[in-house]
Protein 1
Amino acid sequence: MIDSGDPGDRAPRAVPTFRGTAPFPIAARAALADVQLRVNLARATATIRAKRAQAVAEREDWEALRLAGAAIKDSALQQLPVLLVQLEAAVAAAGGTVHWARDAAEANAIVVGLVRDAGSDEVIKVKSMVTQEIELNEALGRAGIAAWETDLAELIVQLGEDLPSHILVPAIHRNRQQVRDIFLREMAGVGRPAPPNLTDEPRALAEAARLHLREKFLRARVAVSGANFAVAETGTVMVVESEGNGRMCLTLPQTLITVMGIEKLVPRWQDLEVFLQLLPRSSTAERMNPYTSMWTGVTPGDGPQAFHLILLDNGRTDTLVDPVGRQALRCIKCSACLNVCPVYERTGGSAYGSPYPGPIGAILTPQLRGINVHAVDAQTASLPYASTLCGACLEVCPVRIDIPQVLVHLRAKVVDQRGWRARASEEAVLMASIGWAFRGPRRFSFAERLASLGGRILGFGGPIRRAPGPVWLRSWLRGRDLPAPAREAFRRWWRRTGGGTGG
Amino acid sequence: MRVALFITCFNDMLFPGVGRAVVTLLRRLGQEVEFPADQTCCGQIHFNTGFHEACVPLVRRFTDTFAGFDAVVTPSPSCAAMVRREHATVAGLASARGLDPALPARVAAAPPVYELTEFLVDILGVTDVGAAFPYRVAFHQTCHSVRTLGIGDRPSRLLAAVRGLSLAEVAGADQCCGFGGTFAVKNADTSLAMGADRIAAITDSGATVLTAADMSCLMHLGGLLSRTGSAVRVVHLAEILAAGGPS
C-alpha cells in the first residue's frame, strides 16, 4: 500500500502543453466540430450557471461584497511592493523560506532544486493554475521528477494526456463514460489500477480515484501547491478546495512548496472574510467552501517541517503597468465568467491556448504575455477578439472586472502594434475605407449608392447568398444571407420627402 | 424640445424602413424630429475592432452635427451605448495623443442620446403607443440593450401594450445571438454556432415574427433564418410600434 515498488509508475509521462495552439478562430473550429464536446459543455455550464445564480441571489449584500472585493484587491495591487516585503518577513518569521521568481523558468528551477534537496523524485500536487501557467509538470518531468495531480478533474486530464479546459473543472469537456475509459486505460500504468469492473457511476469513479491517489498521498515526501490568497500582515497562505486532496497534500509530506502569483496577496487577515463569501458562491455555488486550509510558516511536530513560498511575477508587473488592463489581476479564479460565456460554452477552454480560458483568459493571457510592453504573437493577439462583448462576464464577476472594457482596450493595443504590414491587411483596408466614407455625408451617400448597386447585382433583387471578394464578406455568407443595401437610403428618402411630409 | 434623429450608418444604408418607422411613430406621438444630414457613424465599428484613433474624427463629427439639440434619439441600443459610454474614452485618447485637444469639452457638452424605447418611456412617458400588430412575436433582448445600456424592460412594456400582439416565450432569451460586430466575421464559426442555437429556440417558440431594439443582431439572426428558409421574418421594434396606428 505504501509503495507499489513498481518503477513504471514513476516514469515521467508526456505532458501536453498549450504551445503551438492556432489563433482562436482556427482553434475554435475543432471544438465546434466536436459534437460530444459541445453537448458536455452546454450541459455542464448550464447546470453551474443556474446553481450560481441561486447561490448569489440568497445574498442581499452581494453587490456590496463585490465592491469590497474589488476595492481590497485594488488596494493590494497599489501597495504590492510594500506588502510583498511584509509577507516575506512574516513567512520567514514563522519558519518558512521565501523565494522570488521573475518568470516561469526561474520558478521551475527553484522547484526542481527544492525537490532534489528533499531527496525526492516525485511530488504530489494540489490543483493549481499558476503551476500550469509556468508548465511546472513538464519542467519536473525533464528533471526526472514525477508530478502527481491529486484533484479529481486534474487527474482525469493528466491521465488522459489532455489539456485542461476550465479553471475550476479542468475536465469539464469529459463526460463520465469518457472518465471511466480513461481510468481503466491509464491508471494501471502509473500506480494502482482501476478495478476491472469499474462503472461510470460518479461514486465508483471517485472511489477508484481515491484508492489510486491514496498510495501517492501516503508515499510522497514533497507536495507542490498554488495559493488562493496570502495575507501580508500574518504571512498566512490559504488554499481552498472541495475534495480534501489539497488538505492531504498540505499536511502529509515533510516538505511543502507553494508557488504563488504576486497578485494573490491581500493586506489583512480580515480581508479574507470578503473573499471566502465571494469565491465559493461564484465558483461552485456553495455557501461555504468545503476544505479551507491555512498555514503560517511551519509548526513543529505538525504538518510539513519545511515550507517554501515562491513569489512569481511572470508578466504580472507588466500587467500592472496598464491602468485599464491591471484590473485583470483582481481575478480570484472563480471561473464564473467561463460558465456564463456564450463563446466559451461553444468552444471550450483549449481553443484559448492557455490554462486561463474564457473571458478572463482573453484579457489575462495577453497581458501576462506582455501585450502592454511589446508586440505579441498572432495567437495571443486573437484572444481579445474572442468575444461578442455581450457583457455576461462582467455581470457575474465577483470582483467586478470590466472584462468587455479590457477586451476593447486590448484590441486597440493589437491594432496599434501591428505596424505597416497590418495596414495592408484586409481588415485594415476595410476599416480605412469605411472610415473614409464616414468622413462626410456626401462621401457616405456615395458609398451607400455604390453598395446598393453592388448589393442588387449580387443579390439579384433579393438577399445576398454568395459573393466573391473579401474574406469578411465570404465569412458572413458562409452560413447567413446578407440583406442587400436599400435602393433608397434613409437620408435620400428624407431629402426627397422632407422627412415624410411630402417635401 | 428640439430632437434630432440619429439614424445610425447601418440603418441608413441597410434598413431605411426602421428610420421611417421611427419618424412615423414619433410624429403620431406629437414629437417632430429633425434629421441633421451631416451625421454618419458613431464610431462603434472602429472602436470595438480596436481602431481607436480612427474614431476621433467620427466622434468630432458626431458632436458637431448634434450640437444645439436638446436631445438625440436613436433606434440602436449599441450605438447609444457607444456614444454614452465610449465617446469620452475616444475624447480622452484624442486629447492625450494631441489629435484633437478640444474633443473632451465637446463631448461633455453634447446633448443626451436616448435609445428609442428610453425616449418613449422616460421622455415622452408613454408605453401604449397605439399600435396594433396581430402576430406571435419573439423578442430578442440584445446584450447591449440589457447589459451595456440598461434599458431593462422598456421594450417588453411597449410590446405588451401593442394590440393583437402575443409575445412568444423563447428559451434562453438572455443569451447572446453571436453577432458581436466584427466578431461575426472574425470568428464566423463560433458566431454561426451561437446564432444557430438562438434560431432553434426562436423557431421552437412558435413565433412568426422576430423583433429586437437593434437591427445588428437581427441582421445576423435574420440572415440565418433566411439561409435556412425559415418563414420567421425579422422586424425592428420601431416597425411594430409604428404599425397599425392612425398615420
Note: The first helix of chain A runs from residue 24 to 33.
Protein 2
Amino acid sequence: MKKIFLFFIFTAAGFSAADLSAAGKTPSIFACEPEWAALATEIAGDRAKTYSATAAAQDAHYIQAKPGLMAKIRNSDIVICSGAELETGWLPLILRKAGSSKVQEGGENLIYAADYVETIEKPARIDRSEGDVHPEGNPHIHLNPYNMLKIADILTEKLSAADPENAEFYSKSNKTFQKNFSAKIKEWEKKAAPLAGKNIITNHKNMSYLFSWLKIKTAGTLEPKPGIPATSKHLAGLKDMAKTEDIYAVVYAPFESPRAAKWLSRQTGIKYIMLPYTVGGNSQSKTLYDLYENSIDILLEADDK
Amino acid sequence: MCKNIFCSKSSAFLALAFLLPVLNIPEAAAQAGRKTNNHDMESIYKRIEQLEREIGEIRQKEPEQSAKQSLGLSAFNPYISIVLNGKYSYYSNEESGIAGFQTGEEGELPEKGFSLGESEINMGANIDDKFLGNLTAAIVNEDGEDKIELEEAFLQTIGLPCGISLTAGRMKPVFGYLNEKHSHTDDFSDRPLPYRVYLNGGYKDDGAQFAFVLPFSFYVETGGGLYNGTHFPASAEADRGNGASTAYLRFGGDIGVSNSWLAGASWLHSKNNAARETEGIEFTGKSDLYGFFLKHTYSPGGNSRHSEFSVQGEYLIRNEKGFYDIEGGGPNKFDNKSSGWYAQAVYKFLPRWKAGYRYSRMKPEKVPAALADTPLDAKDHKPEIHTAMLQWDNSEFSRIRFQYSHDRADFERDDRFTVEYTVTFGAHGAHSF
C-alpha cells in the first residue's frame, strides 16, 4: 500500500516537472465572469490566453471553489473580477489554495473592477436581514458601458506590465476599443432614448447599472430581499403595485428561473423579458458590443405589444 | 475598499489635501480653492480630473502609503463568522455503539433530546502579504460541561511561487474528502461510520503541512505533513513532533460546465507509544490509515444554485499493529486490518430544498482468540447505517435539516430521528467543493 502511494506521488511530481519546462510565455488571463473575458479578448486578442471561470448561465455569486478553477488560477498571470464581494464565496479560497503572489489580495495583478468605478446602491443598513447585501455597493458594474472603458484602461496597463513585449499591441488595441466603443455608446444612447423614465421590475438587482445608464427606473424586484427567492406574498404585493403604476416590463437574467416573472406577467399582462446580462447570455450576444446592442433591442421590442 | 476613495471626485479632493505636501503643488490647491468660490464647477472638475490622474500615478508608486491614509484602524479587524448548530435527537436504542470498534469521544453520537452541536467561532485575516491566520474555536458540551475546544489555529503562507503553500499550527490535516471540512458544511448531521471509528469524527492535531498544486491544466495537488500525534487516532506523547504524518494526492477537474469531479488518495500514519485509551480499552503500537475518495457533481448549465446532483464515496482501510489491553487485563498482541466505506447521493431538487441518502458500513476483521468476546469482537456482525435527510435552506446562511437513520452498527438495531438547525452569521463563508 505504502509503495503504491509513493509511486503515485512521484509520478505526479515527474509529470509536473516536465509540464513546467513546457510552459509558454503567453500570459494567461483568468476572468471571473464572461464580460471580463470578452473585454480581455478585445485588448489582448490572441496575445494572451483568456479563461472565463463562469459561463453566462451561471450565477457568479453561487459558484463553488471547484477543482477546475483551482488548476486555472494556479497558472494565471492576471485575474480580473467584478469584486465588491460578488465572488467572495469562492475566489478568496481558490486564490489562497493555488494563486501566485501577484494575483493575491493586494497583489499587482488582481483586478477588482468595482474598485475602479463608482458603485451604486450602497446599502444604508448592512444587516443580513436585508438579504445578501454587499457593503461595497452593487457589484454588477459591467452593464454600464462607461465602466468598461475605464476597466479597459486598467487592464491594458496591467497586461503591459506583465507582458512588456506586447505592450505596444495592447495599448493599440485599447485605443481602437476606446474609440469604437465610445462611438457605439453614443449610438446606443440615442437608440435607447425612448426607454428613459420607464418603470421596470427586475428579478434581482443585477442589471441596475444598465437601467441607471439608460435612465430606466427600477420599480421593484421579484426577490423580496437580495438572494431570497420570490415568495407568493411578495409577488401579490407587486401585482397590486402594477395596478397603480405603469410598469413597462419584468426582467430576469439567463441564470435565473423565469417562473416568478412569468407568473407576474400572466397576472398583470406586463411583458416578461430575459436580458442577456453578460456576453453569451443569449445567442445574439456574442461580443461585448452585441451585449449592449441586444439588451437595448430587447427592451425596445417590449414596447410593441 | 481603499481604492474606491479615488474614484469619487469629492473624495479625491479630500485625499488631495493629505497629499499636498507630497505633491508639492500648493498653488494648484489655492487655485482650485479660489475657483470653488466662483462656483465655476466645470473648470474645477477638469482640474480635479487632472489631479486625480496625478494622485493615481502617486498611488501606483506608493500604494501602501495611500492605503494608510484612507483606512481607519477598524478596517484591520479580522473577519469573524459564527456558526450555531443545535439538534433534537430521538433514539430507539440509546446504548447503541459500533460493534467491534471503539470510538473516541467525538466519534460518538450526541445525547438524546436537545443538544447543541459545535457552536463555532471562526476568525481570520491576511496577516501581511505572505501569511494569513485563522482561528476556529468550538464551544462543545462534554459530559455536561461546556468546554472551549480549539479546532484550528494556524497560519498559512499565501502566494508562494509554484503553487506551494505551507500551514503551521493546529489544523485539520488533509485526509480523504471530509477530514479538513468543518462539520457544519456536511450534507448529513453526523459523520459516516469510518470517520467516526477511525478519525474520531475528524482528525486534528498540531503540526506543519505542505501542499503543492501542480501546474497542469486540470487540478492535481499533492502534499503531506508532520504532526505531534497527540490526538486520536495517534497517542504519541513520547514522540511529539513525529507522532503522526500524512501524505495525499488529489486530482479533479470539470467536464464541460455542468460536471465537476474530485478524487484522491491519502495516508495517515500514527504512532501510539503512549496508550490510546477509549472506554477502558488501551491500544499501544502504530496504525496506518489509507483513504480513497471520489466526488462528482452535476448541475445543469453549471447553475448549482437551482439544481445539483452530487455523489460522493470514500473507502478507508486501517492497519493496526501493536497491543490491546482490555480493562487492565494485560497486553494482547494485535496485527489486524479492517475497513469501512460510505457512499452518498444528494439532490438539490429546488433552489432551497435538498434530499440525500447515505449508506455507510464497517468491515471488522476476526480478532485473535485472546480478544474474543471483548468489545473488539464483532462476531461476524457487519455494522451498517442507512441515512436519509431532507434539508431546507432559507438562504445561504440558514438551514433546517431532518434526518432519519436506520442504524445497525451495533448488534441491536437503533432508529434515529434528528431535527437540526445550522446558521452562520458574520463574514460570508466559502463555497468549498
Note: The two ends of chain A are 71 Å apart (CA to CA).
Protein 3
Amino acid sequence: MSSLKLTVLSGKGGTGKTTVSVNMALSLPNIQLLDADVEEPNSQYFLHPNFDNEEKIYRKVPEINQDICTACRKCVDFCEYNALAMMLDEVLVFPEICHSCGGCEKICPVDAITEVDRVLGVLKHANTDYDVDFWQGELNIGEESSVPVIEALKEKADRQKDVIIDAQPGTTCPTIEAVVDSDYGILVTEPTPFGLSDLKIASELMDELQIPHGVIINRAEEDSDYIIEDFCEEKGIDILLKIPFKREFAHLYSDGIPFVIEYPDWKDKFKSVFNEIRGGLNEENYSN
Amino acid sequence: MKKITVISGKGGTGKTTVVANLAYLAQDLVLADCDVDAPNLHLLLNPEVNNSSIFKSNKLAIKDQEKCTNCGVCYDVCRFNAVDPVNYEIDEYKCEGCGVCVAMCPEDALSLKLLDTGEIYNSTTRFGPMVHANLKIGSDNSGKLVSEVREKAVETAEEQDKDLLLIDGSPGIGCPVISSITGVDLVLFVTEPSKSGFSDLKRVAQVIQHFNIPALAVINKYDINEKISREIEEYLKEEDIELVGKISYSSDVVDSLRNAQLIVEQEQDNKVSKEIEGIWTKIQNRISQN
C-alpha cells in the first residue's frame, strides 16, 4: 500500500479545515500532519504539541553599501515589487515587500548590493500525545510571503507515512503551494451561500491543477445541505462526509478539543473516508 | 470621511455578516469588499454592477522559443523554482514575475508579460455605492488588487461626499490584510471565543499596532465559550482596544444568511439585532470623538 499525501483546503476561512485535518489525523495510524496555514497555524491548539525541534526559515534581502553606490537607479527601476526606492541619492530597502528574487544584486553595475539573511518564519516539530508526527510552519508577523515557509515545510513530508496537509484558505499562491503535488484534495465547506460561493472557487482551482478531490460538509443540517449537494451532483464531485451542526462540536472546538476524542465512533468514519480515497486512487492508477 | 476596516485574523468569525448588518444601520455609506480571495459581501447585499474593469498587475516570464538556446541560465538564476530543469519551460503558478531571468538571459529570449489579476466592479447597493472584485484563480497579487479596491472606494466616497467608508477586510496577517488597512482611521476586529480565534486575534492585532491604527473589537458567538470570552476581554483591556459589543450565538443568524437577509432588518426585536445596534451606537460615538 503506497503512502498517500492529501491536502485539506477551502476557498473561505473558518469552514472547518483544521477540524477535518486534526480529527482525521487522530483517526489514522502512522500519520504525519503538516500545518501549512502558516499565517494562522491553528492545529497546535488541538494537538498540544511539546515542540522538540525548531528550524528558522531565512530569505535573502538586499543591503546597499552606500559608499560604493553611485545612485544610478538601475536596481530601483528593476525591482518589480517596489522594494527599493530612491531618496536623496540614496537607495532605500523595504525588506518586508522584497520577494528575494536576487535581481538587484545581479544587475548592480558596481557591486554595491549584497544579500543578507532575514528570518521569514519558523518550522516547528513535535511528536504529539496522540501519536501524530506533527510539523507546523509559522510566518513571522509583518512578513508577506508565505510560500517559502510552505515549501520548506513540505520538505518535511515523510513518505513512509500518510501525510495530511492543512492548507491556507483561498486560491492564491500559498494555497496552491500546499496542494500542488498532493494526491488528493479534501475541500471543506458549509451549507450557506458563503460556503457554496467559496467551494465553487476552490473546486475550480482543483480542476485547473488537475487534482482529484472530494467535499466534506461541515456544520451540516438536513434541510440546508442541498445548497452544497446540488452543486456537487452537477459537477460530479463526491461528498465524502458530513459533520453535523452541533453546539457541542462548536464548544469542543473552542476549547481546542478534537471531537473524535469525545466521540470515538467518529474515528471509524474518518478512517473509512481515508480508505475510500486511497481505494479510489489505487483503482484509478490501476485502470490507467 | 471616516474609513473603517473590519478584520478578524481567522476566517469564519462573522466579519462579513457584521459588515452587512452595520451597512443597514448606517444606511448611507460606501462599501468595499477587500476579501478578494473569497468575496462574500455581495451575496448579502445584492449589488447592481454599474461597470467593471480588468486589473492587471501580475507578471509572467514568457519565452521566445526561436531565440532560446537551452543554455539554462534562467534555471540557474530563478529563486522560485519556476523554470523546469529539463526543458526550461516556465511554470506560470511558480513564476513571480521578478524579471531576473529576463535580465540575465544572454539571448534576449525572455520577456515579462502583464497578466490579468482580477476584475473590479463599481456597483450600487441599497445603502450606497460598493466596490468589489474577483481575483483570478492562482493569481499572486491579491495585495495589489486589494489596494486598488480600497483606493477606488475612497475615490467614490470623496466624489459622492459620503461620511463613511466601511471595508470588509481580508483574513490572515499577510499582504492582503496589510493592504486593506492602509490609511484607514479605525479597525474593527470581529473575533470569536475559541483558542484559535483568540490566537489569530493576537497575531493580527500586532500587525495593526505595527501600523498604529486605533482598534475596536466585537466578540461574536461569545456564549459558545464564556471562559475564553472573558480571557479575550482581559486581553483587549490590556491592549487598550475598546470592546464595543458581544454577539450571541444564534441559529437565527445562519438562517437569515441562508436567505440572503440581514437579521437587523428582518428581525428587529431579535436579541442579536439589538446587540448589533448597540455595537453600531458605540462605533458612531467613537467616530464622532475623533
Note: The longest strand of chain A covers residues 113-127.
